[in-house]
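Think of the structure tokens as a kind of shorthand, similar to the way a musician reads notation: each symbol stands for something richer, in this case the local conformation of the backbone. In the example below we present two proteins back to back. Begin with the first one, reading the sequence and then the tokens, and try to describe in your own words what changes along the chain.
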Amino acid sequence: MAKCGACGPGYKTPLDAMKGPREKIVYLPCIYRNTGIEKPDYLATVDVDPKSPHYCQVIHRLPMPNLRDELHHSGWNTCSSSFGDVTKKRNRLILPSLISSRIYVVDVGTDMRAPRMHKMIEPVNVFWKCGLANPHTTHCLGNGEIMISSMGDPSGNGKGGFILLDGETFEVKGNWEKGSNIPALGYDFWYQPRHNVLMSTEWGIPKVLANGLDPADLKTGSYGRYINVWDWTTHVFTQSIDLGEDSIPLEIRFLHNPDAAEGYVGCALSSAIHRFYKTGNGNWTAEKVVQVPSKKVNGWLFPDMPGLITDILISLDDKFLYFSNWLHGDIRQYDISNTRKPRLVGQVFLGGKIPRDGPIVVVEDQELNCQPEPFVIKGKRVQGGPQMIQLSLDGKRLYVSTSLYSAWDKQFYPDLVKEGSVMLQIDVDTEKGGLKANKNFLVDFGKEPDGPVLAHEIRYPGGDCSSDIWI
């Protein structure tokens, strides 16, 4: 067996994880904020076992006790960074709320198919103990603590700090960062102790982006442009890597091999992938390795439509890079055997803003000869575009959801809010590369009991390639 249950949580190495069991259920936060439905967000458990009679069905819903939280991303109380510690068990899912700043701790250990609430951390505890708000990414640390990145302060201004939780009691311990020099913005992060580094990214000022994207806010410093570099040992912010004004660097991933001193970040608005790496003098820098060309269009907010890269993943063997273009509507697969020169080997369109029968006309396109067909599966036309992605441990299945953030969903894809999001599955060729939609897989969140809902990030009970860090 690849998994050693008596050796603590997770797997010894990323390659061991690839030999782990096939996913049978997944968890997704489901959001009602900005939908017009006055119901709490909830955690959905979805059956993804082809042998199950409940395949492609939501089998459990855990509602939050409050309205308008805006659940977003999730993480674990412990993971592969604590492999070898037999006292640790992956049995609590951490659910930060992007808007309310509450943090929920969910018990998935008692019954993984029917999670239950374990603890709720009220925002006042985060405000007073950390001076932070708008929590986003959760990562478990090898020492047993839990760290959550923040996007702002309690007044809605930008502030890129980190919240520390006790891994046993889930009490707020305080800030991870030291000193007064803190980045003006925050979002995602990844760490690698072997290189004494933590990297964080920037979305925007919470009170500016809360209700949608206003073009007037661009070129004002309201949106992110930097990778921020931290000293892992001293917790001090040491360096910023400029990726360009309003580039909006979102998801950041080191290669999974803990010896690797490089990785990738996806920039949403500039629609570029940058490779970051350690230089010979010990500093860090970045180079652009993929550029998705904007399309010149009529009938849209701007005359140029970016791809809007919103999520990226690296396969556990560090062979492939995947990312989603939420506006253009495609997912791409790149061979990264040469990390400096990613090579496009797979692409599939799953919706987006530019179907050929839609109101937007593409007048100049550097990549396509014609606008793509609308994506229809099991008789349902998919609204929105591919957004959050999650790869199976063996790399053969890519799960996709279509909601980005409720206010931006409402602005850019109003029919997505009316009809609800979906989860799709893409078959992956792991030998030569290639992506193909599984036409037998559809989870339609438009048919939920309380009405259409916006499902977001996808998480496996045993960990995955965006939750676990090897140290």
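Once you have a description of the first chain, move to the second and do the same.
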Amino acid sequence: MTAWCSLVLSYCRLNKQYIMTVMEAQESPLFNNRKLQRKLPMESIQVVLEELRKKGNLEWLDKNKSSFLIMWRRPEEWGKLIYQWVSKNGLTNSVFTLYELSNGDDTENEEFHGLEESMLLRALQALQQEHRAEIITLDDGRGVKFF
């Protein structure tokens, strides 16, 4: 089971996947080897996903458990990476839109570039609890100020 969990997290990290449906997962190379024409049964996939949930790496997005948020890094870890980038570049006391942080040219070479918005918000909320950032509402959406 540990090997399956590790494989799922590595696959999602490599492909920068954050949200998936169970059906997408079943058809992905993760659980479906087209060359060998073998597929992991749905019941087994559910067991792997449930194990990831128990470990804190997965959150169901609906009551039917048909789509999920996969967390190959926890929000606190993302927050730490973002804050390291802010500090390293002397950007404390700066304000950014969420778009600038996750999709801006300045973050292109950073691991958090392309981070899914709900995960970005969780990371920033973790920083806000540590008094390192404040999530703010801007005219055109949300932003964040770093301290």
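Compare your description with these statements about the second chain. The longest helix spans residues 75-88.
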